[in-house]
Design brief:
The chain is mainly alpha-helical. The chain is built from 13 helices and two strands, in the order αββαααααααααααα.
Length: 274
């Protein structure tokens, strides 16, 4: 089946399937008391990012049935492994996470003192997930290190953004828009496993009806990292890693939300649609 037809089929299944299951997952989380106050102190369901997973798996089944290329399947299963792994780590953080510690620096400081936080576990686990994928992709030690850091820090990038309704998804969709025009071949098909579900869920997050939590932001972040290491040259990957390091250092010292709120253009874009 031509890639274009496959992308259309996967997109329709992901979008409408996610719309269908959102009410069921919201009810499940509310009845399970998986709720948390948002930035306005309203109690809403958290960890709604788990709605991305069912349609991701279903779409992957369809893709695997029609695409019998073994090399494509290697990339598909690595993508699935990464996304499912970080969704699991995110759910842990959403449900049992300690909010008294924040930032990578804080979580690693706790770890060095002998206290494992869910944030620390998530960071270490994300690093090992990235390392496994990097080892499969290349034998070059420098490139393994580069890819591992990209996957780990891209995952956390969406955590940094997910502090106001819709913000993380807006950034994610902007990055995906750039990638859809710059990635080639099977990578474009892989994008259709997740992006349509994110689009279907977007309004729920934007209107603060629920929070996707780390169960969702981890998924978005690691998918960015995976597509980056799958589809781009060394120079672009080095530039992306430089950006990731810079923004992580910056957000350890300054509040991204305060900076956005003080800038008229950024604040307009941030609040757009709420």
């Amino acid at each position: 089946m031509p890639d274009m037809y496959m992308m259309i089929i996967l997109s329709l299944i992901g979008f409408f399937g996610t719309l269908f299951i959102i009410p069921m997952f919201k009810k499940m989380l509310v009845e399970g008391e998986i709720v948390r106050p948002n930035y306005k102190k309203d109690m809403i369901p958290v960890s709604m990012g788990i709605v991305f997973i069912p349609m991701l798996v279903i779409a992957s089944i369809i893709l695997a049935y029609f695409d019998r290329d073994l090399n494509h399947m290697k990339y598909l299963f690595m993508f699935l492994f990464a996304v499912l792994s970080m969704s699991f780590a995110g759910i842990m953080d959403d449900i049992i996470g300690n909010r008294n510690v924040s930032g990578l620096k804080g979580h690693f400081k706790s770890l060095f003192k002998g206290t494992l936080t869910t944030g620390g576990f998530k960071a270490l686990y994300g690093g090992f997930v990235g390392l496994l994928i990097s080892v499969v992709l290349t034998n070059s030690i420098p490139e393994i290190i580069l890819n591992t850091l990209i996957v780990a820090l891209s995952t956390n990038l969406m955590n940094l953004m997910d502090l106001r309704p819709g913000r993380a998804i807006k950034v994610y969709l902007l990055i995906m828009l750039v990638m859809i025009f710059t990635l080639t071949g099977f990578n474009k098909v892989l994008m259709c496993l997740l992006v349509p579900s994110v689009l279907a869920y977007f309004n729920q997050d934007l209107k603060a009806k629920c929070m996707m939590g780390d169960a969702g932001s981890n998924v978005l972040g690691i998918s960015i990292g995976i597509f980056m290491v799958y589809g781009y040259s060394i120079n672009i990957k080095i530039a992306w890693l430089g950006f990731l390091i810079a923004i992580h250092i910056f957000t350890e010292k300054y509040s991204l939300t305060e900076i956005i709120e003080k800038n008229k253009v950024l604040n307009f874009l941030d609040r757009l649609g709420r």
